[in-house]
Every structure is written in structure tokens, then in C-alpha cells.
Amino acid sequence: MKYEVTTKQGNNYIVSDDSAWLWVEVERELGYTVSQAAEKMSQGSLDVITCMLYKAAKAQGHTKLPSQQAWVINEFETFDVVSEPDPKENLQTASSE
After folding, report:
1. pTM, to two decimals
2. Nearest CA to 38 among 17, 54, 21, 59?
3. Spatial contact of 76 and 53, defined as CB atoms under 8 Å apart
4. Cα separations in angstroms, 47 against 11, 29, 88, 91, 95
5. Which of 26, 34, 89, 97 is the most buried (most CB within 10 A)?
6. Is the pLDDT score of 95 beyond 60?
7. What pLDDT score does 94 carry?
């Protein structure tokens, strides 16, 4: 999925959760598998959501802050989902495996 992040400074940028490495980092940081993290996100877990958004923002060069905590306190304001995965694309990927 793609998310539009709005910062306290009034900047907006798009991040994506498509990177496998992003989910490896989330798993290492929080101890949740991808399925568990997705479930926590769907339940509204701000820890998992902001961890994923911070790691995506850091990887894509949108922040230089050294930690999720620093990012949430000093930059993060809100986010919106701007695109969700296409179910047809997921079916095609699953059927080709």
C-alpha cells in the first residue's frame, strides 16, 4: 500500500510498504511476523503503524531522524492511505508461485 504522510512542518510525502526489507525491519524491531503486524495495523496499533511509516520514510530519504520516537515526536502529524493493493494483482502473484 501507499501512504501519504503529513508532517508537523506541513510537508507531505508518499511512502510505500511494498519492500520486503521494510517488513524484516519491523519484525526485528517489534517481534511481529508480517501477518501479525498486518493484523495489529488493521486494529489501529499506532506502534506498528508508526514503526512501518518511520522505517519507510527513513529508507526513502524523507527523514534523517535517528529513531521512530524522535520522528513521531518531532515530525509525524498524520497519514492517509492513498492506494491499496489490487486484489487481482495479488491473485495473479499467488497463482504464478
Report:
1. 0.84
2. 17
3. yes
4. 22, 11, 30, 30, 33
5. 26
6. no
7. 45
Cα–Cα–Cα angle for 37, 39, 41, nearest 5°? 70
Cell matching residue 58: 527513513
21-52: b (≥16 Cβ within 10 Å) or e: ebbebbeebbebeeeebeebbeeebeebbbbb
pLDDT tens profile 49-63: 999 999 999 999 999
Mean pLDDT score of the chain: 90
SS3 8: coil
Judge contact between 71 and 11, C-beta under 8 A.
no
Q: Decide if 29 contacts 22 (C-beta within 8 A).
A: no
Q: HSE on the CB side for 35, CA within 13 Å? A: 0
Q: Are 26 and 55 in contact (CB under 8 A)?
A: yes
